[in-house]
TrEMBL record:
Keyword Ribonucleoprotein annotated: no
Taxonomic source organism: Acanthochromis polyacanthus
Protein's recorded name: Ceramide synthase 1
Keyword Transmembrane: yes
Subcellular location: Membrane
Composition bias, Basic and acidic residues: 323-332
Principal subcellular localisation of the protein: membrane
Topology class, membrane: Multi-pass membrane protein
TM regions (residue ranges): 51-70, 103-125, 145-166, 173-193, 277-304
Limits of the TLC domain: 94-308
Known pathway: Lipid metabolism; sphingolipid metabolism; Sphingolipid metabolism
Molecular function (Gene Ontology), one example: sphingosine N-acyltransferase activity
GO CC annotation: membrane
Length: 348
């Protein structure tokens, strides 16, 4: 089905109350009007509107495998030697490669989505409803956006494996696996249903926090190395923590709901009545918002602790001393190893 609505004047960004009132009204109306909703309609809609080739699926698995090999190669040839050269503490040297790898990837991926949104003809950031203008089922995906999707989709495929088998396990690692699965589902289905325009906007609004997070963590590791203390790295880690906290709220809890969710809940039906899988995609996006709120609670705890003491610990980390406590050692739980700069983000 083609989109009957072409470009119109740019709408001002709504507030939270307008988002809640209009989105709930539109979604309730869409649910009431959907007489034939059910498994049969979903199956027919899936077969009629999902477009993805075996070549694209093969490229996804190949690139996911490639990311894993590239990470292993960089870890052995660059990140671990660098940690040894910096004479990091053993516990920091063990986790430094993970942060270095993620910093490299997210800097690259966010730079590319920033280029697409601000240095090309795409107007999705300044005019979010335009993501649905001239939408057609099975429409071709521009090559530059398809490249971004292949990079991001395959990376999250790799990340599901990496979180379980390569990364340090943390209190929210299970949530991270769920997050990666939801993100991969959003990337895959939005590509297949040609909702790639809104997908680029979602990726842009999330990846910036991962850059700040990994930058902060690296400086936490580097501030105490070789038996010395380095003030510059301490200042950079504190600056990164403040920047991370502010942009998390601004990008994920302000721009994301008011730009993306308003467009997908309200503007989508204005441009494309009976848009395929309207409730499914919005449910995934709301799940992503809930996880952003969940992680923001960690950030609030972090800020409160910063106000109370000079040095704080990561509220997510498991104890290095868990095994010793199990055999009789009763060290306090506050002995966690890392600075609060470790607060992980939703990747994607």
């Amino acid at each position: 089905m083609g989109s009957p609505a072409g470009p119109v004047a740019v709408e001002p960004m709504p507030g939270y109350l307008e988002l809640i009132s209009r989105a709930s009204a539109v979604m309730l109306g869409a649910w009431t009007d959907c007489d034939g909703c059910g498994l049969q309609l979903s199956r027919r809609t899936l077969l009629e509107n999902a477009y993805i080739t075996w070549t694209e699926i093969g490229l996804f698995f190949f690139c996911a495998f490639l990311w894993t090999q590239v990470r292993k190669g960089l870890t052995q040839s660059l990140f671990k030697p660098l940690a040894q050269w910096c004479r990091l503490l053993p516990k920091d040297a063990a986790k430094m490669p993970e942060s270095a790898w993620k910093l490299v990837f997210y800097t690259m991926s966010w730079s590319y989505t920033t280029y697409l949104l601000f240095f090309t003809s795409y107007s999705f950031f300044h005019d979010p409803p335009s993501v649905f203008y001239n939408w057609k089922s099975g429409m071709s995906v521009p090559a530059d956006i398809a490249i971004a999707y292949l990079i991001q989709g395959s990376f999250y495929g790799h990340s599901i494996y990496a979180t379980v088998y390569m990364d340090a396990w943390r209190k929210d690692s299970a949530v991270m696996v769920v997050h990666h699965i939801i993100t991969l589902a959003l990337i895959s289905f939005s590509y297949a249903f040609r909702y790639h325009n809104v997908g680029i906007l979602v990726l842009f609004l999330h990846d910036i926090n991962d850059i700040q997070l990994e930058f902060t963590k690296l400086n936490v590791y580097l501030k105490s190395r070789g038996g010395g203390y380095y003030l510059l790295n301490d200042i950079l880690s504190n600056t990164g923590s403040v920047s991370f906290s502010i942009t998390w709220f601004w990008f994920r809890l302000y721009w994301f709901p008011l730009k993306v969710l308003y467009a997908t809940c309200v503007s989508s039906l204005q441009s494309v009545p009976n848009i395929p899988f309207y409730f499914f995609f919005n449910a995934l996006l709301f799940a992503l918002l809930l996880m952003n709120i969940y992680w923001f609670l960690f950030i609030v705890v972090f800020v409160v602790k910063v106000l109370k003491m000079k040095e704080v610990n990561d509220v997510r980390e498991y104890e290095d001393e868990d095994s010793s406590r199990a055999s009789g050692d009763r060290k306090p739980l506050a002995a966690n190893e890392d600075d609060a700069g470790h607060h992980n983000s939703a990747q994607g």
